[in-house]
Task: structure prediction
Amino acid sequence: MKKTTCPACGKTAFQPATYAARRDLDGRRFTADVPARRCASCGELLISGPGLGAFERAITVELARGGEVGPEGFRWLRKAAGLKAVRLAELLDVTSMQVSRWENGRKPLERRAVALVSALALEQIEGKAATRAVLEALAAGKKAPKSVRLDVNAAG
Result:
C-alpha cells in the first residue's frame, strides 16, 4: 500500500486530527467533527473523504426526517437522491420551471414534493428504490396487467 504524502511538503508523518465541518442550509447550521490527519512536519490538514461523505449523509438524513425544508434543503435532497431537476420534474409531474422556482425560493415548496424528494434521498442512502420505482412506473405510463398470479405462503 502506497504511503500518503503531504501535498504541501511531501513528508509522510501524520498525527490524528479532526476537521470541524460546517454547512449552512436555509438558515440552519450543521456541524460535525470529521476525522482528519495533520502533517507532523508542516501542519497541513488532510480531511477524510469517507468522513466528509458521512457528514453529508447525516445532513441528508436530518433534512429528510426533519420535516420542513427550504429551497436550499430541497435542492440538497434532490441531489442526494441522485436526480437532475428535469428528471425530478418528470417524476413529480410538474414542469422543470416549477422545480427551479421551488429551489430558488420564488414559489413555496409543496409539502408532497418535499415528502417525495425526502423519501427518495433516504432510499438512495439506504440503497433502496421502492419509491423511485413507483414514480418511474407512473411517469412511464406503465399499465397494470389484467391478471396477476401471486405466490402466497399460507404459513407466513
User: Anything to note?
Assistant: Strands lie at 14-25, 28-39, 45-47.
